[in-house]
Design a protein that fits this description.
This protein is α+β, with helices and mostly antiparallel strands. The protein is built from 18 helices and nine strands. Among the domains are: 162 residues, no CATH class; 127 residues, no CATH class; 99 residues, no CATH class.
Length: 641
């Protein structure tokens, strides 16, 4: 089985090389070449990569511990769904998953007739298959999931209990889908500039891929945060961990890129910003892989030390060099206004005011890039301090919060004024401004937390401006279908982001916690709730000892539900694994952690997180907004100039 997996990767490597070389030779030829053989080689390469994935899947399902990767991340008693997700638990398996998703993306390009004009699929496929070739080389020679152990162990080490959750089943594939989709706009930009095509052409072709990458990265970040919230036991969902930051960085550049699409077509800023942001987005996915796979930074999410991370650093350097070369050698395509003969200076006076649409976008993009710079500096500070002075300095949450939160408030404010670009600004402003002022006053009266109160006020202002504008559009026509789809989709995304911001603010500022030691049968109060402890339950199995406790929850003498938590002790894991109890209500969550136990008492750590469900609801509204934007039929895309 191991040999079959290696053979499949070797076949995939040969086919990818055929695609790259064949495409390059035929495209350079002056003759009218046919590309049927190249297209079929590309499709067969996808089949070969799929074969390697299926073989590794089968090795997990059949407990083939002859493979070192299977023995490290699985065991005979592991549930089948987690045997499947164990494929991406380690760095070689996750790299294979990433390669597989890129292959599926390339197959979509290959099969789409909309990209056949001017052989766009071949040109884009050349760049994509170059990256695929690099990945296959890494899997064959640096980090292979098909290495064997002799003799094979009777059982595997098992999957970390924290990874045995639905969150880890869906989070990595979604995140890698986002990383894979970012590659396509990069390929469009490289091909478009290499052929000296007008920038607006390849920007238009990139737009749906950028939107898809953004929604996938958003979903990946949110599912990762939800996994941390439900599995890690500390009650949070984001800790500014280096690997968390690695996924946030390309999300920031993609967000700026999406808004850059709305700049006027006649402005040079759109082309230059777009290219730089596309290059940065793809480069940051590679940089994140370097951080994750090199072992240079400590993280609960990172893989072990290895050469794989430094291979990604080399690949990143090549991408940056190529990107910068195209930036300087094709700068006229990015800076000049096609067909107008106008220079940069002739447009430099337009859209300068921040209260105009273009001005707001530029200010927003500046804020996003300032957040990017702050997060990037905080992430690499341990590397710089270690290299400079030999001592590692780590910047904590206080640094990130003080650097990023005020800038996020600027973004919320800019989103709030978006509906004021058109129509009667005063009419649209009065109610939202009053609502925001009331919320600010209430927030200051209850918590005296200035930044949190401003956040709530800004969020309320933005909610009212967007909803109010949609209501005015509906009143004009009495039909929801009369609202332009792009406007409705953008507003939904904005509303989702605002809800996420309100959820983050409420759950991090208004949260409460207590640590109680109780005996069976005792009753205690916390956060406006009454908790009744029944008894502690002890269970023994052949390999585990489990201690659990359940609390009955009441509010105003009305039964709300039960909440349970347990600790599992095993011979395999050095420390016990805790199952968290969460009692979720629409406005807040109660979060229970069984912290300890003595012969007489059980110790519970209880937290209350107001508005936390607004985060998950807001994310779904964002997804819906992108679907609305992408809903109209797309035109055939071409790089033909």
């Amino acid at each position: 089985m191991a040999e079959s997996g290696v053979v499949m990767l070797c076949v995939a490597l040969g086919l990818c090389l055929y695609v790259v070389i064949g495409s390059a030779v035929k495209l350079r030829s002056q003759k009218q070449a046919k590309f049927d053989d190249v297209r079929w080689a590309a499709r067969l390469s996808v089949l070969a990569v799929t074969g390697a994935v299926v073989i590794l899947f089968w090795a997990f399902l059949t407990d083939n511990f002859r493979l070192a990767y299977v023995a490290q991340y699985s065991e005979s008693s592991l549930h089948p769904i987690y045997k499947i997700s164990a494929l991406w638990a380690g760095q070689s398996g996750s790299l294979l998953l990433w390669l597989f998703i890129i292959s599926l993306v390339s197959l979509g390009l290959n099969l789409s007739t909309g990209y056949r004009s001017d052989n766009v699929d071949i040109k884009i496929g050349l760049v994509v298959h170059l990256i695929q070739t690099c990945f296959i080389v890494l899997l064959l020679f640096i980090s292979s999931p098909f290495k064997t152990i002799i003799p094979a162990p009777p059982n595997g080490s098992g999957l970390n209990p924290m990874l045995q959750s639905f969150g880890m089943v869906v989070h990595p594939p979604i995140l890698f889908l986002g990383y894979s989709l970012v590659l396509v706009p990069f390929a469009f930009a490289v091909v478009g500039l290499s052929q000296r095509k007008a920038a607006d052409v390849w920007l238009q072709a990139s737009r749906p891929w950028v939107l898809g990458a953004w929604v996938a990265l958003t979903a990946g970040i949110v599912t990762g945060g939800h996994w941390a919230y439900t599995e890690l036991g500390w009650g949070g969902y984001w800790a500014w961990d280096p690997v968390e930051n690695a996924s946030l960085l390309p999300w920031l550049t993609l967000t700026a890129l999406i808004h850059t699409f709305f700049l006027p077509h006649t402005g040079w800023q759109k082309r230059l910003w777009s290219y730089v942001l596309i290059l940065s987005s793809f480069g940051l996915t590679l940089f994140g892989s370097f951080l994750t796979r090199s072992g240079v930074l400590d993280s609960v999410h990172a893989f072990a030390h290895g050469l794989l991370g430094y291979a990604f650093l080399i690949l990143l350097a090549v991408v940056v060099i190529v990107g910068l070369y195209l930036l300087f050698s094709r700068r006229r395509l990015l800076l000049d206004v096609p067909g107008c003969g106008q220079s940069i200076s002739s447009h430099s006076g337009r859209g300068r005011h921040w209260w105009t649409r273009s001005g707001s976008i530029i200010v927003g993009n500046t804020a996003l890039l300032m957040i990017l710079a702050a997060v990037l500096i905080g992430t690499i500070t341990p590397l710089i301090s270690r290299a400079a002075g030999g001592r590692e300095m780590v910047l904590g949450e206080d640094y990130y919060n003080s650097a990023a939160v005020p800038l996020f408030l600027v973004l919320i404010f800019l989103m709030g004024i978006t509906p004021l670009w058109q129509g009667n600004r005063l009419l649209k402003l009065v109610v939202p401004a009053c609502a925001g002022a009331v919320v600010f006053a209430v927030g200051m009266a209850r918590s005296s937390h200035l930044l949190a109160s401003i956040n709530f006020a800004m969020g309320t202002f933005a909610l009212f401006t967007h909803l109010g504008d949609l209501v005015l559009d509906w009143l004009k026509s009495r039909k929801l279908t009369a609202i332009p789809k792009r406007k409705a989709g953008a507003y939904l995304v904005h509303l989702g982001i605002v809800l996420i911001a309100l959820g983050i603010n409420g759950s991090s500022v208004l949260n409460e916690e207590t640590l109680v030691s109780v005996k069976p049968g005792e009753i205690f109060q916390f956060g406006g709730y009454e908790f009744r402890f029944g008894d502690v339950l002890d269970e023994w199995t052949d390999r585990e000892y489990i201690v659990s406790g359940t609390l009955a929850v009441y509010k105003d003498d009305r039964y709300i539900g039960k909440i349970s938590s347990k600790k599992t002790f095993t011979d395999v894991q050095k420390s016990p694994y805790t199952d968290i109890g969460i009692l979720s209500r629409f406005t807040e969550d109660l979060y229970l952690n069984l912290a300890g136990r003595t012969p007489e008492f059980v110790q519970f750590h209880i937290q209350r997180f107001p508005l936390i469900n607004s985060i998950w609801i807001g994310a779904y509204i964002c997804y819906l907004g992108i679907l609305v934007i992408l809903a109209p039929a797309r035109k055939k895309l071409s790089l033909a100039g």
